[in-house]
Design brief:
Length: 342
Amino acid sequence: MADILEIKHLFVEYYKRKKVVSALRDVCLNLKQQEILGVVGESGCGKSTLALSILKLILPTEGKITKGEIIFKGYELWEEDYLGDKNIISMGDDSLRKIRGGEIGMIFQDPFTSFNPVFTIGEQIYESLVLHRVGKDLNTYSAIHKEAINSLKRVMIASPQQVMNSYPHQLSGGMLQRAMIAMAISCRPKVLIADEPTTALDVTLQKEILDLLKKLQQELSMSLILITHNLAIVAEICTRIVVIYAGEIIEEAGSEEIFCRPRHPYTIRLLGSLPYLKPEGKRLVVIPGTIPDLIDLPVGCKFYPRCDEASDTCLQKINMKEVNKGHFVRCCRVKEEIDGLY
Ligand code: ADP
Ligand code: MG
C-alpha cells in the first residue's frame, strides 16, 4: 500500500519559563494506507506532541514546529483536485480547516474535555458535518441528520437519537468516547489519530473501544495511528509499531517483529514489564529512573543513563539503522542481523 502521510525530520519545541523543551527531534515516520500504526512510549516522551503536530495544533503561545515536513498524500491517492500545499506545516487556514477533521480525524484521551459541555452531542456532530460535508455530498437537513444517526450506529450506540439529544455530562465515559469516535468518523477521514483512546476508561471498556476502532478502520478503509503508553494495547491491533523515547523514535518494526525480536534495550525492558509476557517464575522488569529532562538532554543516546548495557560509544550521536528488513533501531550496541540484505 502507498503512504498516505509522510513525516520528515520533524523537530518540535515548547518554551517554558524562557527555557526550550526539546519535545520531538528528527522524527521520520510514514503511515501507509489502511494500516494501524502503534506509537508507544512512556508518559512525557512526546506522543501527544506528535499527534498535535500532524494537525498543526501546537499553540503558538506554547511552542512550535521548528523544522521538518508533514506531507499529506491523501488528495493524490484519491485523485481529488487540490492545488494547495501538501505540507501541513506550511498550509494556510483554509486548507487546514479541510484537513482537520475532514481528512485527518482525531480522538483525544479524555472525552469529557473534548466535547463542549453546553451543546448536545447531536449539535456537535452536525457542526462538523456542516463544516466538512455540506456542499460535497450532504445538502439537506434530513441528510445531515441521517448521517449523524448513522455515525452513532456505526459505533454501536443502541439508541442514537437519545444520545444525539444528550449533553456530554449526561453520558457515561464509555458512551461519550463512542460518541467522540462517531463525531471523528462522521466526516469520513482518511486518517484517524487516536491519542490514548482507552486510558481514561475502565479495563472492561478498553477492549470494546479497541475492537470498535479496528472494526471502523476496516469498514471505512482508514489508516489509524494508535497512540498509547501501553504496549499490550498495540499488540492487539497494530500492524506496525514505533517506540518513542524522550522525543526520538528509537525502534520501528512490524508488530510481530517487535514482540518476537525487540532490539533496543528500552523496548526489551518495556516488553519485560508486561505481566502477560512474563515467563513463569520470573519477576517483572522495572526500568529504573525516569526519562531525561527535555530541557537538558544527555549527549548521545538519550536512554543510556538508564541502560545497563551502556558504554562510552553511547555518548556519540546515534542514528537509526536497519537491523532487519523494515526493522529500525537507534542503538549503537545493536548489530545488523542480515548483512548485505539488499
Ligand atoms: P506524552 O503525550 O508522550 O505524554 P507530550 O507530547 O504531552 O508527551 O509531552 C512531551 C514533553 O513536552 C513533556 O516533557 C511535556 O512536559 C512537554 N510539554 C507538553 N506540552 C507542553 C507545553 N504546552 N508547554 C511546555 N511543555 C510541554
Ligand atoms: Mg499524551
